[in-house]
Predict the structure.
Amino acid sequence: MIALDGIRYAWPDAPPVLDGVSLAVKEGERLVLLGANGSGKSTLLKLMNGLVAPQAGSFSYCGEAVSPARLKSGAFARRFRSEVVLLFQHPEAMLFNPTVRDEIAYGPRQLGFADAADRAERWAAALGLTPLLDAQPFSLSGGQKQKVALAAILALDPRVLLLDEPSASLDPRASGWLIDYLLDCGQTVVTSTHNLSMAAELGERAVVLGEGGRLLYDGPLADALRDRALMESANLVHRHRHRHDGVVHAHTHSHDWESSR
C-alpha cells in the first residue's frame, strides 16, 4: 500500500533527518515507528502524508507515484487526501475552525461529503466530545484538543492512519479507547512513539530509527523490544548507576516520556 525506496530528507542547513530509508507497508498492517527525539519519526509520517517530499528516493501509494505536482489537484490528489490522514503530535497545528463541530466536519465538507454534519456528530459522540461541539477549539485542554484532532481525521473514514505520538495528551480512558479502536478498525495504521510500554499495544511490526534517520531494524515488534542492545543504540533505553542498600551497580533503563519532534 505504501512503498518508500531510498528516502533521504534534510531540513535546510542541517544534516539528514532521514537517510536511505526503505520500507513497505501492506494494507491492514499495524506498524510502529520507534525512535528517540530527532530520529526522523515525525518527518517520515509527514512524508507519508505528502506534506514534505523526499529529496532523494521515491514514494508510492497503491502503486502510484506520489509527488508534490500530483498532490496539487486532480483525482489522485482527492483520493490520497481522503484516504491517507495524519494526526500531529501537537493538535494545535491542526485546529483553526471556530467550533469543534466545524473542525470535525471541515475535512468531509472540503471533500464534498453530503453527510459531513452527521459525521461530525457521530465521531464527537465516539470520543466524548458532544458537550463541546459548539465550543471554540483553542479554549479546550490539551487532551480535548487531541480528541478533536483525532475525530477530525476519523470523520474522513480513511484507509491509512498516520499517528504521531497519539497518546501524548490523552487521559488513560481516551488512550484505552484509542488502543481498542486500532485493534479492531481494520485500517492500515502507522504509529510513532518512544513509549516502549505502549508500543506493544499499537502493532505487531516495528521500524526502529536511529541517529540521523537511519533504519536500524524492521521486523517483529516483540523481538525489537527484547533486544536491549538495539534499544540502547536507538537511544530508547540508557544505562546509568544506582545505589541500592549501599551497593552501586549499573543497568539499562527505559523511560516512557511523551514528547518528541
Notes: The radius of gyration is 19 Å. Residues 255-261 have pLDDT under 50 and may be disordered. The longest strand covers residues 2-9. The chain is about 30% helix and 25% strand.
